[in-house]
Amino acid sequence: MADSKKTANLTIGDQSYELPIHSPTVGPDVLDIRKLYSQAGVFTYDPGFTSTAACNSTITYIDGEEGILLHRGYPIDQLAGKSHYLEVCFLLLYGHLPTGKELEDFENRVTNHTMLHEQMQHFFRGFRRDAHPMAIMVGVVGAMSAFYHDSTDINDPWQREVASIRLIAKMPTIAAWAYKYHIGQPFVYPRNDLDYASNFLRMCFAVPAEEYEVNPILSRAMDRIFTLHADHEQNASTSTVRLASSSGANPFACIAAGIACLWGQAHGGANQACLEMLKEIGTPENIPEYIARAKDKNDPFRLMGFGHRVYKNFDPRATVMKQSADKVLELLGVENNPILATAKALEEAALADPYFAEKKLFPNVDFYSGIILEAMGFPTSMFTPIFALSRTVGWISQWKEMLDDPQNKIGRPRQLYRGETERDYVDIENR
Ligand code: CMC
């Protein structure tokens, strides 16, 4: 942690306490309150962690006001434009851009771990056919700890490394198989002569009865979706992975916890919810009614795919994703798709509405990724699994960083207790 001579003074009653301030390499200073309870006997209150830094990190930096997202210092638009997903995975995991040799070695290692233990097929088949692919992913990823015992010891750096590679490599296979099972088609095995994104598209869309040619523009767009979702600092699912891991749980269990958290509509589930909302809106004429509902304090409805906890001007991932969306729609000749027409009209209507401007609510990455995935032919239920497979590298990088941090402690928040004070048990006949 960067040391600094700066301090803050906190006065409670007639007592003053000096709190150290840590200065990051970039971003706001951080008040160190670790000794607050032992010295002053008070807790801090911050539901949703809106003002709390829970860890040290060197992986990702976000400036929400300026719309900046850096991975290991590199801006997301440069990575999305010039790099590709597996190179970004290397960067997130190891902290530097790989040399040609390092990248080749990394890609080989990932490629050689894409197959699943054959017995895992039985595990997939145990789910109901109509199971949501995210439900299958939570279960199957958690079950990896039962199939890959030799990479569950978190105290062994080699096992940690193998678990990381396995998770990144197998996640596309797991997501694609969850989809295949869901639609009743045979599982398609990974092919090691294809790049990461092409392999995923093939495992999702190929059938044994026909040849499948991967369209390079779609594969590039897929790779971009993976890249743009690769990591996002201490968001809810990443914090969940860190919290699960803080107790010493194995990596597969921790990533399964992250997937479960991602599923919610306020987080990774927003891409599915957004497309479902667009379908419900139906045609552009209905947009004013939905905008009015989103603004009505008595209506819980929110415009899905709009707003972000951290980005308050624009989401830099959304800017890149929007360009990708335009290309994909043109390529597929689906510019006239009614859902996409509604999406464009909604984007324009919300951006022109003072409510959204005042509250700094802009389309986020999930608004545009949903549009691309819809155009590619993915059902909405696959949107969040695709987010989960992309984010796996972020979760893993943060998990590894945490295990190497000497300040790592079991996560144990405190509370503002507002319940009953102590009272005596009342026998049932006297209640
Ligand atoms: N539609 C209408 N009003 C909204 C929306 C929305 N999508 N988002 C926020 N608001 C309003 C909210 O009602 C509140 O108004 P007021 O100040 O009058 O009470 C104000 O804006 C601030 O909202 P908040 O809920 O306090 O903000 P938050 O930082 O806790 O929530 C959010 C961020 C992303 C959960 C929220 O904007 C939201 O629910 N958006 C829709 C879901 C979504 O698209 N999520 C994906 C996020 S990007 C992918 C990811 O990283 O997971």
What attributes characterize this protein structure?
431 residues, mainly alpha, three-stranded antiparallel β-sheet, globular, binds carboxymethyl coenzyme *A
Biggest sheet overview: 3 strands, antiparallel
Gyration radius over CA: 23 Å
- Could you give the distance between the termini? 56 Å
Structural class: mainly alpha
What order do the helices and strands follow?
EEEHEEEHHHHHHHHHHHHHHHHH
Spatial strand order of the main sheet: 1-2-3
**% residues in beta strands:** 5-15%
Sum up the overall morphology in one term. Answer: globular
Mean pLDDT: 94
Helix content: 40-55%
Return residue spans where pLDDT drops below 50 for at least 5 consecutive residues.
none
What is the number of helical segments per DSSP (H or I, 4+ residues)? 18
- What oligomeric state do the depicted chains represent? single chain
Number of strands: 6
Bound molecules: carboxymethyl coenzyme *A
Description:
- This protein is mostly helical and 431 residues long.
- Helices cover 51% and strands 6% of the residues.
- It has helices at 36-40, 76-82, 85-94, 100-111, 120-125, 133-147, 157-183, 196-205, 216-228, 236-246, 251-262, 270-281, 287-295, 316-332, 338-351, 354-358, 365-376, 383-404; strands at 7-12, 15-22, 30-31, 60-63, 68-71, 74-75.
- A 3-stranded antiparallel beta sheet has the order 1-2-3. The chain has a 3-stranded antiparallel beta sheet with strand order 4-5-6.
- β4 and β5 form a beta hairpin.
- α10 crosses α18 (383-404).
- The longest helix is centred in the middle third of the chain and has 27 residues, at 157-183.
- The protein is globular and about 75 Å long.
- The termini are far apart.
- The chain binds carboxymethyl coenzyme *A.
- The site of carboxymethyl coenzyme *A has 20 residues, from α17.
